[in-house]
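Question (not urgent): is this output format expected?
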Amino acid sequence: MAGRYLSSSDVAQIVLTLLLAPVAALAQGTLEEAPQTTWGVPNLNGVWDFRTLTPFERPEDLANQTLFTAEEAAQYEADRLAGFAVRDDIEPADGVGNYNQFWFDPGNKLSETNQTSLVIDPPDGRVPPLNAAAADKQAAQQQEREGIDRHSPTYGGWIEDLGAGMFAVRCLLGFNSGPPMTPGGYNQNVQVLQTPNEVILVNEMVHSTRVIPLDGRPHLPEQLRQWMGDSRGHWEGDTLVVETKNFLRETSFRGGVTTADLHLTERFTRVSNDTMMYRVTVEDPNAWDQPWTYQIPMVQNTMPLYEYACHEGNYGLYNILAGAREEEAAAEAGQRD
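Got this back:
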């Protein structure tokens, strides 16, 4: 009998089954059926917290290990928390343009699945490498910005070139709110609001809001591109599937390597009374030669969202630009001398 080789999709499905097993075990006895809305679809309403110590990509020393053992998880959490505790001694707490650890909120534990990375496909838990064109573009941008701090525009730039801090500095898009959402920094909550005809996602970071129609209407014409893309949703069983495309340009996701051709497939599944699985498949032919997927078990938060008072056009922007122009003038004067 001839042997059968596993395809990459087969391997990805096996990995996904392994990662979901702990959540399924957790849910047994607590959620026989997803809570329903009055109009008969799964109830995803509430505030959901996506903080986690789980690394986005699998650490190289864990190679093909998809799950932490209980002992490894405890040690990893202890090491990460110890690192946070001493960070202020390494980076001056009064450093200009940075926060001390009081202001960060990374969480204090791994995701309850004990997965060794949020990335689940490719099976090695690593984001695929950038394709040649994207890698060359990134290298050119890094060279052009050498010696320029994160919050400053590239010399001579401001309108098109937002600097490495990008949309977060200008209060356009949060650095973790996406889309897609990724753990990072602070303000790591999203509130889900449902009606029979749409789902609304309100991110705590930079108060980003997406109103997602569920009535089957087509996407907007490509000429009407949006900062957060154009989202359309539908139900597949107990899973809300949201397709997003027609982005205006790059977002804060993965440091701004994506383009207007980014296509996201987000899946929201309530797997227990207090856990919602958020799974995202990322496609952008201008950045990667293959799609890839990550997942985050979001935990229900009983606290409300509070206003994140970030305002486009604040005084910080004026001062950042004024300082950048002063530095440019000084550099030009030095060259003349």
